[in-house]
């Protein structure tokens, strides 16, 4: 089956392009044309060019007939930005967003999460939930998502089918858990967990044989809910297939105590995964809030990556992940919404919350992470070091795009605008406020742009992007493409 049907045209995108060059630097490409071939690949990035020049020179250089090219031109206040990568999201928890009360991880799982996930064994309910989740995240500019589904194979297969048909690039994981869950929502045995995982992989292979858009991902939920036997089988399957792995680590202090009790022979939480062959360069570890130095060093050595989920970590009171500390150790970090631990489907929201959480660390009043005020004082962390904890606009937007791409193993393929990469992109539009109408004393808002961001025209491009980060939302996400296919449009 074609993995990205509905797109078989040559396209040219004209205007301003903003993307990450490196962790702390955004590049602004003005008066630029990006050409995308029918397979969704970027084949040209031409500076100092416009639609007319492209027609006269660039298309000919590519051997394109201008009549065959669909041209998209940015309007005032608009720019192209790479699609967001959500490195950690539970599609099956989407109906629960915002519903967490004052719970913390372990009671949150039992009260809200397991009942909702179990209920999605009803395929009609799963279809409603997954369709809405995919549409909503696309509308917020998420072009790639690393999804947890449920323990049900048909329900997980349905999520993969829907991502393919709605055009979202996805990693789809059938959740494995064979203990410490309610009896109605557990794998019967390690053998059952493994064979269900294999059935889910087979289904994805049948709908997208080359994993062009949808890739299976091995998903032991987290160490407390998996026996060592199950995790070792999944580790062996990873070694055999080379597939990616996703799980949770070190989110909550009670969870860490539980892991210590359940796995007394392992050195620490990260060691449990390592002992089972699950700490690989293709492993996405979510949260990683309370890691020790030894654990971070092991993760660095294994090349595993971290999904930082600031919304979830704040909502269910888990703590503050030390992103700068992780980055300094050479660990790749991306952003996750972690719905519904996190209440928002938006990676833009995750990026702004990553800024704020890093500032709480800098203020030293975070009581959740090992780098909280007391620890920092004891360790005599200098004022400069605390200041370094702060993440900039450029840095969180890197984590949301290029950094996330590296976390899910798509570096060089998505997350930026370079020849050879795929056109996974969003068109961002900010509201442009016109001159005060003479004699009326009120601002006139021009154009169809709406939303929460007002541009007055004097802002630098850096300031425009900062205004988008802190006040933007899905109203500013005008169009979204994955592999060149238009998958969401407000205009
Ligand atoms: O944020 C989280 N969401 C979950 O669903 C989950 N399961 C285990 N640990 C978890 N953490
Ligand atoms: Zn999670």
Low-pLDDT residue spans: 1-5, 365-374, 437-445
Q: Describe the largest sheet.
A: 4 strands, mixed
Helix content: 25-40%
Structural class: alpha/beta
Rounded average pLDDT: 93
CATH architecture of the largest domain: Alpha-Beta Barrel
Task: Just give the CATH class of the largest domain.
Answer: Alpha Beta
Hetero groups bound?
Answer: xanthine, zinc ion
Q: Give the N-terminus to C-terminus distance in angstroms.
A: 30 Å
Number of H- or I-type helical stretches: 16
Q: Order of strands across the widest beta sheet?
A: 3-2-1-4
User: What is the C-alpha radius of gyration, as a whole number of Å?
Assistant: 23 Å
Give the number of DSSP strands.
Answer: 21
What percent strand?
15-25%
- How many distinct domains? 2
Report the principal-axis shape: globular
Short characterization:
This protein is an alpha/beta fold. It contains 16 helices and 21 strands. The chain has two domains: 10-82 and 417-489, Urease, subunit C, domain 1 (Roll), CATH 2.30.40.10; 84-407, TIM Barrel (Alpha-Beta Barrel).
Walkthrough of the structure:
Its EC number is 3.5.4.3. Catalyzes the hydrolytic deamination of guanine, producing xanthine and ammonia. GO terms for molecular function: guanine deaminase activity; zinc ion binding. Residues 81-487 form the Amidohydrolase-related domain. With 491 residues, this protein is an alpha/beta fold. The chain has 2 domains: 10-82 and 417-489, Urease, subunit C, domain 1; 84-407, TIM Barrel. The chain has 16 helices and 21 strands. A 4-stranded mixed sheet has the order 3-2-1-4. Strands 5-16-20-21 form a 4-stranded antiparallel sheet, with helices on one face. A 4-stranded parallel sheet has the order 6-7-8-10. A hairpin with a 6-residue loop joins strand 17 and strand 18. Helix 3 packs parallel to helix 4 (153-166), helix 4 (153-166) runs parallel beside helix 5 and helix 5 runs parallel beside helix 6. The radius of gyration is 23 Å and the shape is globular. The protein starts with 9 loop residues before the first strand and ends with a strand. 53% of the residues are buried. Zinc ion (ZN) binds next to strand 6. Zinc ion binds at residues 88, 90, 248, 286, 338, 341.
